[in-house]
Design a protein that fits this description.
2 copies of one chain form a homodimer. By secondary structure, chain A is an alpha/beta fold. A 10-stranded mixed β-sheet of chain A has the order 3-2-4-7-1-8-12-11-9-10, sandwiched between helices. In chain A, helix 4 crosses helix 14 and helix 8 crosses helix 11. The longest helix of chain A is centred in the C-terminal third of the chain and has 17 residues. At the A-B interface, helix 3, strand 3, helix 4 and strand 8 of A face helix 3, strand 3, helix 4 and strand 8 of B. Strand 3 of chain A pairs antiparallel with strand 3 of chain B.
């Protein structure tokens, strides 16, 4: 059985003070359904990706909550895996269609973070890591700073190369009407921004965001004007804390999930023209490009610096055309779904100013915690 | 493709002060794996049912957390749907096997509630309901009390009939070594216990509990000494709050999920010999027996009072042989998984003192909130 993404939609990401999670969800789900050319009652189940609504808002039971809010009353599920919640919800939805239990389902990724005090958001996000890391005050910027230091030490990666990830992603975001940050950056500006956790400056870090994204997953090739086929959906996990990992110059979960995905899809990294990776920090994009096998270990930082992943560069493949987590924003539960929305737009040829020329294959990469969970999807267009 | 439950295990339920969620999980998963006669590395994915770890313990990302704690590092997912989290995790696991993505997976339901202040637990549990219910102080005992009042008014259901559910379930629990409450009750004792929300007394309510349960779901009929086939797994949702429902003498989500499950299984309610239902309050068991179609609407209370669902009675079918949520305990995320453990034990003929004679079909019924989510499974033994 083939599985397709027939409809997609995303809200703008950013500080959305004047809307509730309910209205964000209503907006994207309605638009995704219309984009698929179907009716609400064609949706047989709802998969909600969200991390923080319980801890920050006291609201759990989000499957029933949103199926009710959307007026659907279908089987509904909340899937949580920290910042990979959206990707995991999509994986579950794809499995549910492959199982034959549901023909057409909706994946909704949604998060509302800016209504809360930053210290409460930080504390809640620490729930993605281990007890030991929380107790020792090792926040996610601190953990990724450690990974950056290892990479700099082992491969000579520079602060300028880290900064070039943020510069590229803001450039891409400047062409994305839904992006949180449309301002252009320079290497100097990133390096001169406040130090958060050495060597990561403020502008090496993705922001706190609100937003929602939705996709319609179906086994029916007739849905949507231009359905995009899901060739692979894979998940892997690693230790929750980085202290017990055998190597700190890679995210092993990404390597395992990627290998499985390439096998499922029957393609290799060099076949991919457009990729959305989980750049929660600039170092994370460099690790991702290597762990996904798009560059050899130790070669990604230089390639990114040279514009090899930038839409206006002499690119091998375009990375984070949406602006990524850094430029487009990172409403945790929505991120993994937004990545799929962006790749579908690219494969349809409907990505506007940020369109990559004629891509055939695209990949998404969504991470939870400091790499304890990784989710990889490979999509394909049949357009000639 | 057929799907089987090849291994099961549960910890005792109760106030488990001296163990962590990690050790509860290790114990049940190890035992379930051994029960299936397989090795840990035969498990290809982990589905965790849990509601409260984020709100009460600040720990999310439980898929990766437990796959790490169990030394598995397989694809791992947390599935949440309030008190139906365990049943939903099982549904996801079954779909994942039917999809062909995973051949053998583990479902872990786990909850640790008694370490926290009762008022914090109550506040967290209210996260299963609607904003409006929370804001008006309508706790779950209050909501189920309203449903009980409607049932009493419409069908003449009595306090004694409500109490007879608790009396039966404590009687069954007295034969279950894993049950939280093994003491026998009387109708008088239930009615004389403190009033919680009129007409529900303390002993009409299920307790706060700790515990964990696990099952091994597989497509391989050769696993386990006596694999039990999953004939149906279905989910339905309704409005989150009871105020907007068209009828208050039923849980519509149960009716929809049950109808779908009977269709999938190709059987009718009268074929079932043993049932685990979601008796979070005594009225909930009465509603469940009617909404599952085992008794006509308005007839269940009398049947229960007459011993028609009691192991030592002249039973039509035995209900909550484990003791149910009332007698065995209700560690939220574990409950839906424990129900499956109990039915598997019954269909294997290994339920000891509480064994129902030669059951062929068994059913589980798990509810989230005041009926916004319902999950129904139907299992079958091929034993002659």
């Amino acid at each position: 059985m083939n599985v397709y993404i027939a409809g997609v939609a995303t809200t703008p990401f950013g500080e959305l003070w004047d809307v509730s999670p309910r209205s964000l969800a209503n907006e994207v789900v309605d638009r995704a359904i219309r984009d698929a050319g179907i009716e609400k009652n064609d949706i047989e189940a709802l998969f909600v990706g969200n991390m923080l609504s319980g801890m920050l808002g006291g609201q759990e039971h989000l499957g029933a909550f949103f199926s009710d809010a959307l007026g659907m009353h279908v089987p509904a599920f909340k899937v949580e895996g920290a910042c990979a919640s959206g990707g995991l919800a999509a994986h579950m939805a794809i499995m549910s269609v492959l199982s034959g239990q549901y023909a057409t389902v909706c994946v909704l990724g949604v998060e509302k973070m800016t209504d809360h005090k930053p210290e409460d958001v930080s504390a809640a996000l620490a729930g993605a890591g281990s007890d030991e890391e929380r107790m020792s005050g090792a926040t996610f910027p601190a953990l990724y700073a450690l990974l950056a230091r290892v990479h700099m030490h082992r491969f000579g990666t520079t602060q300028e190369q880290l900064a070039s990830v943020a510069v590229k992603n803001h450039f891409h975001a400047s062409m994305n009407p839904n992006a949180q940050f449309k301002n252009l950056l320079t290497i100097e500006k990133v390096i001169q921004s406040s130090m958060i956790a050495d060597p990561l400056h403020l502008l090496d870090c993705s922001p706190i965001s609100d937003g929602a994204s939705a996709i319609i997953v179906t086994s029916k090739p007739s849905y949507g004007i231009h359905p995009i086929q899901v060739l692979a959906s894979s998940v892997a996990t690693d230790t929750l804390d980085i202290a017990r990992r055998s190597s700190l110059d890679e995210l092993r979960a990404t390597r395992i999930a990627a290998k499985k995905a390439y096998n499922q899809a029957g393609i290799s990294p060099k076949d991919i023209q457009v990729v959305e990776v989980h750049d929660c920090f600039t170092i994370a994009e460099i690790l991702a490009m290597e762990d996904l096998g798009i560059y050899e270990k130790g070669n990604a930082a230089k390639a990114i610096e040279e514009g090899k992943t930038r839409l206006d560069g002499d690119f091998d493949c375009v990375v984070n055309s949406s602006g990524g987590l850094k430029g487009c924003g990172h409403p945790v539960g929505a991120t993994g779904v937004k990545q799929l929305v962006e790749i579908v737009e690219q494969l349809r040829g409907s990505a506007g100013k940020r369109q990559v020329p004629n891509p055939r294959y695209g990949l998404t990469h969504n991470v939870g915690g400091s790499g304890a969970t990784a989710v990889v999807h490979i999509l394909c267009t049949n357009r000639q």
